[in-house]
Amino acid sequence: MRIARLLAVCWWFQLKQMTKAGLFVFTSIIEPLIFATLAYYLFKAGHRPGTLLYAALSAGLMGIWTSTLFGSGGAINFQRWQGVLEPLVASPPPYALILFPQTLAAASIGLYSLASTLLWGRVIFGIPLHFAHPVAFAISIVVTIVSLGVLGLVMGASFILYREANALSNMLEFPVWIVTGVIVPLSLLPGWIHPLSWILAPTWGYRAIHNAALGGNPWPGIGIALGLAAVYFFIGQAVVGAFERRARERATLSLV
Amino acid sequence: MRQTLRIFFLGGYFSYRALFNWQSPRFYVPTMLGGPAFQVLFFAYLGRFSHVRDDAFYVVGNAVQVSGMSGVFGVAITVGGERWTQTLAPLLATPANRMALFLGRALPHIVNGFIVSAFGFAIGRLLLDFHPAPGTIPELALVVLLSTTTCTAFGLVVGALGLRWRDVFTIANPAYFLMLLFCGVNIPLSALPKWMQVVGSGMPLTHGIAAARRVAHGASLSSVDGLLGKEALIGLCYFAVGYILLRVFEAEGRRRATLELV
């Protein structure tokens, strides 16, 4: 019960804090709208009108990754800058249980992206919003956000030791969009990339969302994304513990 | 005159050195080389999926546009970032020539933007179906240098606005990403609505990218002189607007005592 309360309070606090930050308003709303517009005109120019809902949906999903990336990658650095990283690490709960709700909040912020690109597509471009499996669509979004939150835990943890975390965040936005097939089908990518896609939970989450919205079976994607999220959680916990110990030993925890 | 040149070159050099993060390969490589390289790849694959144009279209468009990583973000941070580092007030208290002071800060970012852009082209050449004739490369380099300069002029406007609105990234981020949409980087201008074409024709890079695409396909520099002239003129306008805004915001900051607010 205490753990559930800790997770809920940290998640809610982080969510409110991020909603007020200009950077997250940009990454979760404005940037996805720019990409949605770009994808819309690109697919229209390529005479692929059937893909317009796909474009709006994909731009929203891209926004979820961007929010997760900058929120999770920057979580520890933000705490460093605010001078609260050391007290948080020194507090009784395991640090992983403090970091996880923060990365989950970053992924949750991505819901703004999805909502805004779908609304933008409907209002500005008149794209009909007909989802093939509405219930599965909602479930697949929740599962994808949880799996991204857990992936954020692994990512955020590895950034404990890497102080230029924001540089890595700057770099990782496009490659994960490519590798997870969020907008470009994996079949167009070289074969050697496929195994890398398979071990990324967002690949399966995005696939489930696309199938639930556009037609197809979303359940295998949902199941695999959940399974991978569980694996990530165990890895994330271990990595946080190991890196935290190492940062304490080297006295680099609060170095900015 | 000698002092003005000293402020222009040395001031610019030291302000670039003061971007301490950028001196570290651990920051520079992922941000300035890795990110742009993946941008080129992403849009090339998106282009293949959308069947709009070939790889060369996306490689040239994005390789030129990624110069904005330095031209927009770099200048914005250099100029707008003076406020964070609390050096803005002392800087503006000096009697230094403002033209040399601010334009000097833009100079290193033109060079850096060119390097970033060249890396984007190299990635396109190595990993995608982009094979310009070797003879076109010097002319292509000239077009890219001009485009990087106009992009940096645009960055000066963004940096000036950053002086006024405090958080420079609130302006730099949309500025960078809107270029992807309006400047014909990934969508042919003809495929955009009329009003977007009009906006795009007044943005930096639009004409430079169009010229670079033709040159990469073997056209001579003289055959694209109209496009290059427009790009240069737009760049000059942005430099002028950037400089005027900087002077206006400086005067306003002094009057309202807001130079040191962060």
Structure, described:
With 256 residues, chain A is an all-alpha fold. Chain A has one domain (45-250). In chain A, 78% of the residues lie in helices and 0% in strands. Chain A is built from ten helices and no strands. The mean pLDDT of chain A is 88. With 262 residues, chain B is an all-alpha fold. In chain B, 76% of the residues lie in helices and 0% in strands. Chain B has twelve helices and no strands. In chain B, helix 4 runs antiparallel to helix 7 (98-127). Chain B is globular. The two termini of chain B are 34 Å apart. The A-B interface holds A 22-23, 26-27, 30-31, 34-35, 37-39, 41-48, 162, 164, 167-168, 170-171, 173-175, 177-178, 183-185, 188-189 and B 21, 24, 26-31, 34-35, 38-39, 41-42, 45-52, 167, 169-170, 173-174, 177-178, 180-181, 186-188, 191-192.
List keywords for this structure.
heterodimer, A: 256 residues, B: 262 residues, mainly alpha
What is the element layout, followed by pairings?
The complex is a heterodimer of chains A (256) and B (262).
Chain A lengths: L1 H18 L2 H24 L6 H31 L2 H6 L4 H31 L8 H25 L6 H15 L14 H5 L2 H14 L4 H31 L7
Helix pairs in contact in A: 1-5, 2-3, 2-5, 3-5, 3-6, 3-7, 3-9, 5-6, 6-9, 6-10, 9-10
Chain B lengths: L1 H16 L2 H4 L1 H26 L4 H11 L2 H13 L7 H6 L4 H30 L9 H29 L3 H14 L11 H8 L4 H11 L8 H32 L6
Helix pairs in contact in B: 1-7, 3-4, 3-7, 4-7, 4-11, 5-7, 5-8, 5-9, 7-8, 7-12, 8-9, 8-11, 8-12, 11-12
Low-pLDDT runs of 5+ residues of chain B are none
Low-confidence stretches of chain A: none
Name the average pLDDT of chain A: 88
Structural class of chain A: mainly alpha
User: In whole angstroms, how far apart are the ends of chain B?
Assistant: 34 Å
How big is the Rg of chain B? Answer: 18 Å
Overall number of strands of chain A: 0
Class per helix and strand makeup of chain B = mainly alpha
Number of helices of chain B: 12
Instruction: Tally the structural domains of chain B.
Output: 1
**Quaternary state of the chains:** heterodimer
Total beta strands of chain B? 0
